[in-house]
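As described in the Methods, two query proteins were run sequentially through the folding procedure within a single session, without resetting any intermediate state between them. The first query and its resulting structure tokens are shown here.
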Amino acid sequence: MDDKKIKETAAELLRNKETIFRLLSWLRPEDIERGTLVLPDQLINEELRDFIIDRAAPYLSNYQLSCTKTGGSPGNPGGLVFLDLDLQIRQLGKLRARYMISVSELTFTGQSRRLAFHYREDVRSLGNPLQAMALKALLGDKTLLMRAAEMTKNSQKGFSPGPALSVGRDSALLDLNRLPLALPDFLDCVDLWHEETGDGFLRFRFAFRQIANR
């Protein structure tokens, strides 16, 4: 970043200092010194709730995330993320979607920003019988996540060319570079990758790098 961008970033951090200090209180200095970022379930479920629900409105009304460690191996640390979603979809009414997720890749670098995972899905209608029938007809032999990917592909306004989300029956790939996200400039200096899903937390490794002035 150049001098102007650094000053703009510092000013933005000061404007949001109360939120930033509250988020930082969840982190341990010794983890940061080792280049490790540990995000507890509670931080994601409480501190980030308003931010996430606001950006997923009007479809998402509530969520709950929990992480648990499972047996892993070198290069594949294992671990499962359980995600419960309360959804509101026009004509289908209220839905509850439950996911069991195994993260196979989450990288955030200058070359790649992507999330790959395996999943199992359970979706149920909380509405009337007609809405339950409409949900069954919509899904057919596909998952709700597959249908969501199809709808995203059909409304690409603001997206980079190519699919942002590719989904199969039990796996998915999200290319974050293809989403219209307004990210802070200082993230261009950070490499971040998923290291472990543990009991009650997600752990990432991170490193800072220099980039040329633009």
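Immediately afterward, the second query was submitted; its sequence and tokens are:
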Amino acid sequence: MTKHDQNIIYKYALRAKYIFVFAAGAGLLSLGIQIFFQPNLISKNPDLESILMVGSLIFGLIFIAFGFYYKKDIEIYIRQQQL
């Protein structure tokens, strides 16, 4: 395996990290929206449902925002290392 091939694999492995963060955030955001539109989906307790909805919406948005920050850092690192 040449150095060029190793750099390509390393570059896409780095990119897979922030894609995973985006996917986790999108999943949490989707769960929160689904609980909002379909009450009593997970539990019969409305207080628990509202806590789960708000928590998943907030953490989903936090993960997506962190994913954008992480993406910016990784792309700058890739350009600096000339991968």
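The CA atoms of residues 7 and 26 lie 29 Å apart. We note this only descriptively and draw no conclusion about the first query from it.
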